[in-house]
Amino acid sequence: MSTIETIISGVGSYLPDNVVTNDDLAKKVDTSDEWIKSRSGIGQRHFAADEQATSDLAYEASWKALEQAGLKPHDIGLIIVATVTPDRTFPSTAVYVQQKLGVPPGIAFDVSAACAGFMYAMNIAHNFISTGQIKHALIIGAEKLSCFLDWEDRSTCVLFGDGAGAMVLSGEGPRTSRRPRGVLATYLSSDGRLADHLYADGGPSTTGTVGQVRMNGKEVFRNAVQEISGAVFEVTELAKVSRHEIDWFVPHQANIRIIESCAKKLELDSNKVIVTIDKHANTSSASIPLALDEGIRDGRIKRGELLVFAALGGGLAWGSALVRY
Length: 325
Hints:
By secondary structure, the chain is of the alpha/beta class. The chain has helices at residues 22-26, 33-40, 54-69, 93-101, 117-130, 154-157, 217-239, 256-265, 277-280, 287-297; strands at residues 5-14, 18-21, 44-47, 78-82, 107-111, 136-144, 162-172, 182-190, 198-200, 213-215, 248-251, 306-313, 317-324. The chain has ten helices and 13 strands.
């Protein structure tokens, strides 16, 4: 067992200036504020400007995370960007973040697991750190989802927003406390048989286009409640920690009814759940770090508390992480 602890040393977030309310959308889509809120809990979302790329959103969030961690770009040995809206098909968005931040040569790549992408990035970075390969990793969930929504499909276009959240993970050790800190356990899974429930209907090798978001809402809802809550059970069991010890549940922000159903299944009080979907909408891989940063900045989440993150997205892919912040 590794004696190196993977701690969260800094968190940052960025939301574009353009706030789009449900009433704003109702002017271009056959919908209403009541219709959207009753089905999703969303009241507004942020949309990036035309000239803003995903790497620009990631850059802004990353600087804030670095500042909170007290680190400089040259301290970072690994950058992972979780995104389904990369700047280009290749190279990775991570290398553009590396370029913009001025991070020296090192490891940089993207992961594509849709809304579960940040969980995948966190797991990968934790393994790099716990094996002693790097000291500090910058992981980012960043999305410009507004660029490939179908404005004729009101069942999907009203659900998403743009934004970025970043986290600096750092290795510390050997452990001196009897109570482990940082990342205690992670869990990942996916099931390709369910891929057609949530996907983009384009791709370089199939259509030569980016495509647009397509979703079977009923099946996504059912699987999300089952697999997100299941992922929390899995990760607490791996860490040999009771879920009743959890101080904060920070779930992917896809739908308020999914979040509430998961909390009920996990027997977690609603006061222990961080909810930002009303203000951010579904920002895919960015939603968990955005929610975490808000919880830290407003003083709810404090050092030493036990946090659990969990998400499900296209793939279908899902995952979780248990962290002593």
